[in-house]
Each structure stands twice: as C-alpha cells, then as structure tokens.
Amino acid sequence: MMRHHLASTPDTIRFGMFDAAFNPVLTIASGDSVTFECVSGGVEVMPGPDSGLTIPPALRAIHDSKPERIGPHILTGPVAIAGAEPGDTLEVRIEAVEPNNDWGYCAVRPLAGTLPEDFPERYVSHIAVDRAAGTCKPDWGPTLPLRPFFGTMGVAPPAKYGRLSSREPREHGGNMDNKELGAGATLYLPVWVPGANFSVGDGHGRQGDGEVCVNALEMGLTGTFTFVLHKAADLGVATWPRAETQTHYIVMGFNEDLDLAMKQALRGMIDFITARSALTRVQAYQFCSLAVDFRVTQTVNGEKGVHGMLEKGVLF
What we know:
mainly beta; 4 helices; 316 residues; 9-stranded mixed beta sheet; globular; 6-stranded mixed beta sheet
C-alpha cells in the first residue's frame, strides 16, 4: 500500500464539473491511500479586505487562474485506480476529515434553496472556525460543534452524459451532501469509465439534513481516503451509490421529485435487504416500515436526495 498527497492547485482541480473525458491527475493502485487538501468557494463568496479573514493562498491561486467553471464546487482530482473498469465497484474508505481553514461561509442566493420565493436576496455569512476546539460560531448565532464531511465525492459519470455540472448528484455520486459520510464511513460507487476517476471537494464543516438554504458551513477540508477496487465478478455490478458507517447501512436515492427520490431509496433498501437475507420483497417492504429510517438528505441540488438507514445488527 502506498500513501499519496494531492493539493488543490490550478492544475489539479476542476471547477464545478464531472466529465468522463477528463484525464486523471494521479493514478494509484487498489489499496492505496490519498490525502486531498481541498479548498472551497468562488470569488463571489470570499470575505472582503476589512473582514480580518485570510483567503488561503491555494484558493487565491485557483481564483487568479480563472478556471473554466460550470457548477459551484472546486473538485480536486480526478484520481484513477489502476485496473478499474466499467461494471466494477470502487470502495472509498473515508479515513479522516479535518478542517484546514479558520473560517467558512454559508450563503443564500437568488433563485436557489428550498424557499427562493421567501428569500430572494443574496446573504452571505462568514463563520469563524476554532479548529482546536472543534467548533464554529456565526456572528448572529450560537457556538456549534463541527461535524466535517465532504459534500461532493464521485467518480466520472457515464461517457454518454458528456460534461455535467457538479450541482446534481447522480449515479456516479457527486454532490450527495450526505452528512453521514464523515470519517469512519465507507462509500461504494459504481465504476463507469476505465480508472473510475474519483474527485472530491465541497467541504462541509457541519450541515443539517436538508441543507435547506443551499449551503452548509462551506470550508476547506483535508481528507484521507483509501481506495479498494472490487471487480464485477466478485461483488456484482453496482448501479447506484451506497454507504455504511460503523452503525448503519445506507442507501441513497436522487430525483428532482422528492417523492421519486424516496421511492428510489426505498426500492434500493429492499434490494439490499433481499440480497443479504432470506426475506421476500414484501417482507423486506414491511421490515423497512418497521425498522429503517428514511431521511431527507438535501432539497437544494436540483436532484433532491433521500437516504435510508438500516441499523447494523437489527437484521444482519
């Protein structure tokens, strides 16, 4: 196993884009670990010169390079895993996630969020982060504990999609904004292109389920990930992201209609249960009603999210 390091620079990021045509900036072997130093935020949400807050040099260098931009997230990568082929599954073990900046932001912008008709004006809060204490504090609110995770983690999408905005989560993962995916969690992603081509960004210092105003505490994070490749012949062909934590198995559904996202997550959980137990589909359906929690992941990314959580040890 080898350990690699990848910093966010003008040469190692894509601004708001996933594309199967992007060449990897690093190629690793299955079992290797990569530490990503990620930055966050466009020029429009940066603090002013009188704020007392410092823009990280790596982020300023990216802004100064004026990269092509489609969506809202600065994504570091892609990283290829040697031998990955379409139909395989990429296991992403999230080993560590830590803040690398002393402030973040939360913004409301016109025509975005869950209540755009109620909040039509731009409003940006710059929020102080105490890394030593593991807390953050808005000027207008209480001190809150940090619960860092990456909102966007994904492989390259199917080539037929062409270039995609990073805004919408899809079968390649992407902007899932699932707060359960912090340190200690494991994410499983279907592979759509040779190498898989994993990218990460959109650091969140903390977030509530729903992410209702369109942002969490957006900030720079450093994350360490271990990548394990599972061949289709060994694990079967995955078609949708799923995850697990130390306590739960997690399935996810994404759709512009929240009802349909719920149905997708529910069907995914039924599939998960029947593949690993002797329950019939109707029994698994009833079991979901008795024992699985379905939560609204986010309602602000175009494709809304629902995730189902099955506690480990309840069924298997």
